[in-house]
């Protein structure tokens, strides 16, 4: 069981006492997201009701689900304790968030608590890791969690949503209303279809391709893994243009493209730039680039992270859309998807009486851990920040 140490001086005197967890019961914290434009929430009221009915205690910060259209009343009716300060929401054994916490939010957490959230490698700094280690937080990056067959359920779900949404975004910026090229995404009789280049052949690419083909667009898919190209053709159920990534072939496709989707997932924690600035400069003016992998550093050299408030910028006459949390555009759908994944994980965790036992018993859960009891355990983060790290399995072996 994770050892929990009472914080000193965290609460004002009038704050309520800490919630004590019973045997086989966890105290789950669901704080409100404060990151700009993040509208998702990890648990829906229906999921909270299931957890409470199974003996768990859930603390929900007021308005945590508001932007996903879930009210405090719904959470209260489901059996959650609704609190009105972030400090109270963070006073839990296990904290579930979408965005990584800020330094201030980390200060609210109990020493020795467990954090399950996104890591978002592309925008992290060494100070973040130091703050977690100072509080001896066990941190789990949910994008690195695997299922029993080696898939990544959170990445898969969010990729399905991003892929389904990304072509609708492209359609917006192709229209004359947004000073685009004035093209319909797809095609009509007698008019050539729009050209869509998809870089990557994973889940984002699959759902992007389905949407593009459904609208009547012509697509070209590039990836360096032949098995992925073969797989996407099989899943789409039709012959589509596929190619491995080489500068000449990709460069020619980009020159004719109306829409370019960057959907290459970072491998071994490291992103790979496959579209150079020179290639972007050779594209048709008014074309659109959407780099879905920007949260991992991106795969297009000219891509820079943007936000929902100001989602685009123009470089070399090409519109760039580089928002890292595209699923937040459809926050309710994304929240239900996250809830479906994490509810059974919490129930498993409760059966084992804590997050630490989950790490010890399940390798698929262990793969998400990047800090553990004051130590950095992720080799890629250690290299990125020039910090020492320890192998998690060795730390567990020493403890057990």
What does this molecule look like?
There is one protein chain. Helix 1 runs parallel beside helix 11 and helix 6 runs parallel beside helix 7. The radius of gyration is 22 Å and the shape is globular. It has an eight-stranded mixed beta sheet with strand order 3-2-1-4-5-6-14-15, with helices on both faces. Strands 9-8-7-10-11-13-12 form a seven-stranded mixed beta sheet, with helices on both faces. It has 15 helices and 15 strands. With about 400 residues, it is of the alpha/beta class.
Shape: globular
| Helix/strand/pairing category | alpha/beta
Number of helices: 15
Q: Distance between the terminal alpha carbons, to the nearest Å?
A: 11 Å
Radius of gyration: 22 Å
**Mind describing the biggest β-sheet?**
8 strands, mixed
């Amino acid at each position: 069981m994770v050892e929990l140490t009472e914080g000193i001086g965290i609460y004002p005197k009038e704050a309520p006492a800490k919630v004590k967890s019973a045997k086989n019961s966890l105290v789950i914290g669901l704080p409100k997201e404060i990151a700009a434009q993040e509208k998702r929430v990890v648990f829906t009221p229906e999921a909270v009701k299931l957890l409470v009915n199974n003996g768990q205690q859930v603390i929900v910060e007021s308005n945590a689900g508001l932007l996903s259209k879930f009210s405090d009343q719904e959470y209260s009716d489901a059996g959650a304790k609704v609190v009105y300060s972030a400090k109270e929401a963070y006073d839990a054994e296990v904290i579930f968030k979408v965005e990584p916490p800020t330094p201030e939010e980390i200060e609210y957490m109990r020493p020795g608590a467990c954090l399950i959230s996104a890591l978002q490698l592309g925008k992290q700094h060494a100070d973040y890791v130091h703050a977690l280690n100072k509080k001896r937080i066990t941190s789990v990056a949910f994008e690195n969690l695997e299922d029993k067959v080696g898939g990544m359920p959170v990445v898969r779900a969010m990729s399905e949503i991003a892929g389904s949404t990304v072509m609708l975004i492209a359609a917006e910026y192709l229209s004359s209303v947004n000073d685009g090229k004035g093209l319909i995404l797809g095609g009509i009789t007698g008019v050539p279809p729009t050209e869509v280049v998809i870089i990557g052949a994973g889940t984002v690419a699959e759902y992007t391709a389905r949407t593009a083909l459904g609208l009547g667009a012509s697509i070209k898919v590039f990836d360096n893994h032949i098995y992925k190209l073969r797989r996407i053709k099989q899943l789409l159920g039709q012959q589509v243009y596929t190619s491995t990534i080489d500068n000449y072939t990709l460069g020619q496709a980009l020159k004719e493209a109306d829409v370019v989707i960057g959907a290459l997932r970072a491998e071994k924690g490291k992103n790979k730039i496959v579209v150079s600035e020179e290639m972007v400069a050779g594209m048709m003016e008014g074309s659109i680039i959407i780099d879905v992998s920007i949260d991992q550093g991106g795969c297009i050299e000219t891509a820079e992270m943007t936000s929902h408030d100001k989602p685009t910028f123009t470089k070399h006459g090409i519109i760039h859309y580089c928002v890292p949390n595209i699923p937040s555009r459809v926050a309710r759908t994304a929240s239900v998807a996250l809830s479906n994944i994490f509810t059974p994980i919490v129930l498993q965790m409760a059966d084992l009486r804590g997050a630490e036992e989950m790490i010890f018993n399940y390798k698929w859960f262990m793969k998400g851990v990047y800090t553990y009891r004051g130590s950095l355990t992720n080799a890629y983060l250690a290299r990125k920040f020039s910090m020492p790290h320890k192998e998690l399995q060795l730390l567990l072996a020493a403890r057990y």
